[in-house]
Amino acid sequence: MRHLLSTKDLSREQAVSILDVAEDMAETQLREQKKLATLRGRTVVNLFFEDSTRTRISFEVAAKRLSADLINFSAKGSSVSKGESLKDTAQTLQALGADAVVIRHSSSGAAQNLADAGWINAPIINAGDGKHEHPTQALLDAFTMRRRVFGGNSRGVALDGLRVVIVGDLAHSRVARSNLWLLRTLGADVTFVAPETLVPFGARDWGANIVHDLDTAITEVEPSVVMMLRVQLERMQTSYFPSQQEYVRNWGLSDQRMQALPEDVVIMHPGPMNRGVEISSRAADSPNSSVLEQVSNGVSVRMAVLYMLTSGDRGEK
Amino acid sequence: MSDGILFKAATLSDGTVTDIRISGATISEVGSHLKGANETVIDATGLVALTGLVDLHTHLREPGFEQSETVLTGTRAAAAGGFTTVFAMANTLPVADTAGVVEQIQTLGERAGYATVRPIGAVTVGLEGERLSAIGAMANSSARVRVFSDDGKCVHDSLLMRRALEYVKTFDGVVAQHAQDPRLTENAQMNESALSSELGLTGWPAAAEESIISRDVLLAEHIGARLHVCHVSTAGSVEVIRWAKERGIQVTAEVTPHHLLLTQELARTYDARYKVNPPLRRDEDVQALRRAIADGIIDIIATDHAPHPLEAKECEWDAAAFGMVGLESAVPVVQTALVDTGICDWARVEQLMSLKPAEIGRLNGHPSSISAGQQAELAFVDPNSRSVFDINRLKGRSTNSPYLGMEFNGAVVHTVHQGYLTLRDGELVDEQIVAECSKLSQHEGLSS
Ligand SMILES: [Zn+2]
After folding, report:
1. Eight-class DSSP state of B264
2. Chain A interface residues (partner B, CB cutoff 8 A)
3. Integer Cα distance of B342 and B352 in angstroms
4. Which of the ends of chain A has fewer CB neighbours closer than 10 A, N or C?
5. Which residues in chain A touch residue B271, judged by CB atoms under 8 angstroms apart?
């Protein structure tokens, strides 16, 4: 594995081994001395063309816990000569001797551009590109599910037989895409729930089950995991749905719907949440909710990815 | 000029092997075993001789975007591709929406001399889609504009399109429509499909093209006007046009070489060389377009040659410009997609790439065949050559070709325009010589 651009091209073995390394990383985080010397002297660049405090900080903490030197490079705003700036920025980072680049960009494919164009040799980690993918989010979600379901016996295990329901704005969600590919690779069944306007065009060809009615999905799938996606209320203006009320009534995880879910269901949300819209406060704060675990697991997973792509045998690939 | 050229043993599109003598700007003699006189003799054994290729859809970028292409560099690319006439799209800066601009473009073409440049006039002022441009003035100018198009943009307002069809009919012109519903394609990046969703690139649905074509053929029928549909790209569009033709509607349709060969799968690379408008579609669409050529539903092939500087393509997909250069690669791509697959013979290629576009564009003086007395506009193709299409094959100013590194059958070897060579043995004839020949031939044209 040279780069981490998407979950689609991860094999089951690769995915499980990332999750296993993340387990090791998580273990070290229980120690008093959290910091590892693994990436001492290596430079990790956080290249953020789009704001995302959560993801940036998560990678930052991960890099620091591995003792890497971290450069935060926020390149947001130069939209006029966007392309030039991606190339120029990449060449600059190459000249500065970056050992890994974490890139977040509003353009789908930007991470792959960076990996393919020959501007820079460092491993590229996609931290979210447009509507395409957000592989570390999917990995931390899978990690979280695995821990919830298998606890201390997680190592080496995939997610066979898990029933995951993902609800909300699937059309614009890179998290939904990365999760679908990864969860399927790991053996889980994925059901997408959304109004037709928010189902990605052609998603039936992807092999996900698509259900429009959330209550039907809850009764028929009996989900092990329900993942609620953030819905942007601006979507109303562009006729994806008529009103917030109608959205909440049909696709919000309300207290009533919580009651209908299996007792041991895991409730997930990639954050930031719209409380009272896609998820009620009670659901978000219930013991079933793994929202905060997702945040801490994010650090372990990103440590694992940085470690696996950056440490050791450089130039030996 | 007076010395002339004698091509020996060329194969015409109907398979006849013959010599072709060119004197001045005309074909003076066609027959076997012509004796060489005081003229240039070129062995054309094994080469297919076609009437000069005519591209109804070229973006020459001048005036205004000379960093991408000029009339000179674009017509050099044309000559390298076997073209003797190009119709220059109106989306320049200023837009070709007045007599002054179209006359300027025409003059630049005559001065360069590599090909006849026929300006296309904008349908609406500034391509803004709000009111008609100076269509009559352009039609009656020395550029005699007969093709009108807002290409790059669609004339989407239904009433304005109706008026444009009617008004252009007044001047025996044709509206060439870039069929794209703007609302259905806001920020669209590639063909809408499971793949566009997977790649996270905003989709350009086939229905956005098909719905505009459907409306336009109905308007053309209602008012009895001619309509030309640019770059048809979907199987559904083919069905709409088939239906329209069966009803006797005066519609003609073009397809680009890239829509006959390449598919949306190339977007997986996120390499913006494959970003084009309309986008590359599914393999089913490519096959349907090829069949439509065999069935005569598609009338012509036009390149939509769209040069862009490197920086417009060397960037994120959604920030990149739409379009690809296509003049130099048209013949190899068409041979690969249509001739070698048995869909077309060379006579049909001559129809698609020379005779029919000349007719649609009301191009005066274009040869109707290679025979004595016709204008000497010729392209010689070596169908047996096989080579990798590399950057040296590109003769225009821009290099945004999707074909670089691909291997093709067929290459253009010689091009003759107005009786003089613009391309010889695959090499462009020197700029000064071509300009001088052009000057002489215009002079002779005036005095005869
Ligand atoms: Zn167009």
Report:
1. G
2. 8, 81-84, 86-87, 105, 107-110, 112-113, 116-117, 129-133, 171, 174, 177, 200-206
3. 15
4. C
5. 116
